[in-house]
Fold DNA-binding transcriptional regulator, AcrR family.
Amino acid sequence: MFPGGYDRGVQNTPIPMADGPDAERCDAVRNRALLLEAATALVSERGADAVTMDAVAERAGVGKGTVFRRFGSRSGLMQSLLDHSEHELQGAFLTGPPPLGPGADAVARLIAFGRARLAIVELQGDTLRAVEVSPELRFGGPARQVSLTHVVALLRQTGAAGDLELLAQALLATLEAGLVLYQIRELHMPVDRIADGWETLVRLVTGTPSAG
Amino acid sequence: MFPGGYDRGVQNTPIPMADGPDAERCDAVRNRALLLEAATALVSERGADAVTMDAVAERAGVGKGTVFRRFGSRSGLMQSLLDHSEHELQGAFLTGPPPLGPGADAVARLIAFGRARLAIVELQGDTLRAVEVSPELRFGGPARQVSLTHVVALLRQTGAAGDLELLAQALLATLEAGLVLYQIRELHMPVDRIADGWETLVRLVTGTPSAG
């Protein structure tokens, strides 16, 4: 269902085994998860700027060398952090519980998708925006492709007609980190307002008035 | 109606007078218009890359020194070219003939606005995209402010309710040079398709089905 893009987006997490080299590999995976967890906690508590190699090492209770061995550099760490968030979001909308995952109706899933993405932008917007500076990654990156395919599929389920690819791109454009950070920081819009705006847009585009 | 932003967006073109320093000033204005016309012709015939100081001078039949005196550098020239296009677009939607200008209904004006902007992106997208790399100019620049105010006003006229500022920003996000150039160049979408997508989006958002 999500060829290419999705496989690249999802990290190759090997199934952990009990012995020998697999046990080592298992340690590496656990280690990596531990470090990303530490970095995520730092971002949400103190913002992206607080994520230094030192701070992550301290938080995770490992040596700084371990962090460097695992991610190479701070920008490698930030990129892995984003991949991790994307991976989690993808898992949530593909196989997670409703309303983000299957089981809810398509409009509710679209609304939940935007709200979930806005939450990522709020926490990791600076890293996302740095990635978005490259037009190829901004619009053509694997994570974007998966999101686009997902939004197109949901739009189709709502019965929307016409050029769904363009419509999906229009919707995704409103969730871009550059725009959302500008709305939050320069226009001082609360994220809740931006999320409500997303819901309004989805309802207008799909012809689904609010239940309330 | 367009405080601040609009005044900054519109160039300070002095009213030409017949004598003395005013005549000189009048020459300068005419000169500038001549050079921008030459540059515009070059862009539309051979693309933005063809616009060099030499080529503009040759095309306008003046010395290269004149072009440098007027614009300082190639990037100064490209910026002036953009200002010029923005100025023309603003003139067209504020006081020009319908459907872009007053006289048409608000939905038709919104549709015409997007089509006109897409035409600018098609011709001058590279320059626009270079400007968009700065988030402040991308979302906060004077030209953007004028467009935003215009779109909000038209949305209000259509009877659209809710958070019109966010809705206007969502609409404008789909016309950004970075996205549009990606659609044209990487996805090989014809500009007509993108323009039709804009019309669809406007009709959905304003609840105005196509007449056809």
Observations:
- Chain A is about 75% helix and 0% strand.
